């Protein structure tokens, strides 16, 4: 938040609550939810039975659950989503500081050989991983202090997203059996992520790499292990080597705004023919599919999103987060500060809820009236802007709210 299940720990900024985990599209499309809620002890017995049926030794399962308890603070963090209501300029300025840039460049030099290995083996540029490392844990400094086993059990028992967290709890048992997790002492983010780049148990089992050659995968204490594991995970999620991910662009005033947004892709050559140009540097390869992303409408920052940008959503589902992370990767790779433009005022959280309710009443699926401008809401906004004869740039304004 994959929710999709990667999330940001509370560390991102002291002023911001933890991010919701990110889910893969496949996970989001799963069928009925697994058993959840009710008496916690009885529910644990059900998880134990499932784990044993999957081949885990009963004594291992019993030992894992011996001290498990629910953690109300985890549920409180899970419900705290106000951070996603910030717009891109506000959000990115809060997350990207000169200190984070300086530390990123210092770490790029300190772990130069590791980043060279990641680029050679997985095709993931150092700026991309540095940005995740910075946002997730401030380069390993703040990894979260929630008990991992308790957090996963709490969220698997809760009926909001058990389809995501119950498999992660089962994976944690396997990680425990292999010596990679101690249910009594392993800590991390509120949604069960562990280590310097915050990975869930399933991800560690599949993508964990012993980067420093000490014979074990230690994502909490070894930057090399964490970075190589993160690189492998991004490659596993579909990262395409030697291709860009996000690039700031200049857009012509006469562009058909209804063609912008992540649901519309054209080859770079077609965008160039329409007057799109890179703000600094050339655009990507002419045949690369790309989308014009206007996170704050036609008068705000403008980017060209390439196929690799979509991989970011396999790490976290928040549009404002992935856009900021992708942009920060560019900054760490030498790109200039973006042109903030002069975007029209957006909506407050309560106004966004009202807008989403109006859109739902008109038959749009916006993923719930949560006050967060996600991609589903943006698509509905764009459709209504077209219907009303407004510039269809997917940026909701008080004028649009009034018109509805």
UniProtKB/TrEMBL annotation:
SUPFAM superfamilies: Lysozyme-like, PGBD-like
GO terms of molecular function: peptidoglycan lytic transglycosylase activity
Keywords annotated in UniProt: Signal
UniProt keyword Calcium, yes or no: no
Ranges for domain Peptidoglycan binding-like: 348-404
Annotated source species: Limimaricola hongkongensis DSM 17492
Listed Gene3D superfamilies: 1.10.530.10, Bacterial muramidase, PGBD-like superfamily/PGBD
GO-annotated biological processes: peptidoglycan catabolic process
Stretches assigned to the Transglycosylase SLT domain: 40-329
UniProt keyword Ribonucleoprotein, yes or no: no
Bilayer-crossing regions: none
Pfam (any one): SLT_2
InterPro entries: Lysozyme-like_dom_sf (IPR023346), MltB-like (IPR043426), MltB_2 (IPR011970), Peptidoglycan-bd-like (IPR002477), PGBD-like_sf (IPR036365), PGBDSf (IPR036366), SLT_2 (IPR031304)
Name of the protein described by the UniProt record: Membrane-bound lytic murein transglycosylase B
Leader peptide range in chain numbering: 1-20
């Amino acid at each position: 938040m994959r929710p999709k299940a990667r999330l940001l720990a509370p560390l991102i900024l002291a002023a911001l609550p933890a991010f919701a985990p990110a889910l893969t599209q496949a996970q989001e499309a799963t069928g009925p939810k697994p058993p959840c809620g009710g008496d916690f002890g009885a529910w644990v017995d059900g998880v134990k039975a499932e784990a044993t049926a999957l081949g885990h030794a009963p004594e291992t399962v019993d030992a894992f659950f011996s001290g498990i308890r629910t953690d109300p603070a985890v549920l409180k963090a899970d419900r705290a989503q106000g951070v996603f209501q910030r717009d891109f300029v506000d959000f990115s300025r809060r997350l990207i500081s000169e200190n984070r840039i300086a530390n990123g460049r210092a770490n790029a030099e300190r772990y130069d050989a590791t980043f060279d290995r990641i680029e050679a083996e997985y095709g993931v540029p150092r700026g991309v991983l540095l940005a995740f490392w910075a946002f997730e844990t401030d380069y390993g400094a703040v990894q979260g202090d929630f008990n991992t086993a308790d957090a996963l059990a709490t969220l698997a028992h809760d009926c909001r997203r058990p389809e995501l967290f119950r498999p992660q709890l089962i994976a944690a048992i396997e990680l425990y059996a292999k010596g990679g997790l101690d249910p009594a002492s392993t800590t991390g983010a509120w949604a069960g992520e562990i280590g310097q780049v915050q990975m869930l148990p399933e991800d560690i089992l599949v993508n964990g790499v012993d980067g420093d050659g000490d014979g074990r995968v230690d994502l909490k204490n070894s930057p090399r292990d964490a970075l190589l594991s993160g690189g492998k995970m991004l490659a596993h999620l579909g990262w395409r080597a030697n291709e860009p991910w996000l690039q700031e662009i200049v857009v012509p005033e006469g562009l058909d705004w209804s063609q912008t947004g992540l649901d519309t892709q054209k080859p770079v050559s077609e965008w160039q023919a329409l007057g799109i140009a890179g703000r600094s540097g050339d655009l990507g390869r002419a045949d690369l599919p790309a989308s014009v992303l206007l996170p704050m409408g036609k008068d705000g920052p403008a980017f060209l999103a390439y196929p690799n940008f979509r991989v970011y959503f396999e790490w976290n589902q928040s549009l404002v987060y992935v856009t900021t992370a992708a942009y920060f990767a560019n900054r760490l790779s030498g790109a200039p500060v973006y042109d903030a433009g002069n975007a029209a005022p957006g909506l407050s959280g309560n106004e966004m809820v009202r807008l989403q309710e109006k859109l739902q009443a008109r038959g749009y699926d916006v993923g719930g009236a949560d006050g967060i401008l996600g991609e589903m809401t943006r698509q509905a906004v764009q459709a209504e802007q077209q219907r009303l004869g407004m510039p269809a740039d997917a940026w909701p304004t008080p004028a649009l709210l009034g018109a509805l």
